[in-house]
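Q: What structure does this chain adopt?
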Amino acid sequence: MTDTMDDLDGFIWIDGALKPWREVKLHVLTHALHYGSAVFEGERIYEGRVFRLAAHSARLRRSARLLGYEVPWTRQQIDEATRAVVKANNLQAGYVRPIAWRGSEVLGVSAKGTTVHLAIAPWARGQRLSVEASASGIRLTMAQYRRPGPESAPGGAKAAGLYIIAGLEKDRALDAGFDDALMLDWKGRIAESTGANIFLVIDGAIVTPTPDNFLDGITRRAVMGLARRRGWTVEERSVWPDDLKRASEVFLCGTAAEIAPVNSIDAHRFQVGPVGQALMADFPALVREADCEGFGESGYLEAEA
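A:
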């Protein structure tokens, strides 16, 4: 029988201390459970180090601010806690989930009066939280729900509540035999998949949607940096569904997926082509560079107080 996520060996860092995995519990009336006010990150461990750790910790703090609260640990303290819990679990490769949330002191639409908590849980399991990369490419279908506009939700926050429609669309895609769903934004432009950013190769140029009100992924920034190292230009612009007809290659990128080529989006077909293949070949060296834990091309330095 496969272990469930609450029944694993190891340690979780929570509110300043390492605790045995199975002893970490939350009350059923925790505010974030009812109102989706948690913020979180997804991070990858390579050779014992967390890729773009500083950028992830900074974005976690920024996400909380966008939801109206402060994480009571500095970016540097979150970095050190992450390193400590990875070391305590003796992990050389795996996944890390930091999450901050508002507690159980008050239960109502307003979270005023609640305590902010922070936990960091790493694991080595092969369980993916996003799409699984495939040499032949993955299959997408168009989502029914759209990403909300900036007047409706703070799309720049990696907030639990914003993943409700992503989860619905992911399940719908899987039930229909696809690997993931492609989501449009509130204007009908291409935005992202349910858990990864998207790139298109059109007439030899690399194009990616401007993250107007969806997550500007840290892996997205890293892939843009890899392309520029090769002397390629990456164009950030509005991308419309009609652009799919002109694309020769499409690929997704994210922490869990890394870089995943796409072979189809409903009736549209694409090759697993030279641009995506080159970036996939470059990525393993990038995550093992000496400064891999830093900000890189992430652009989240402004989150620091």
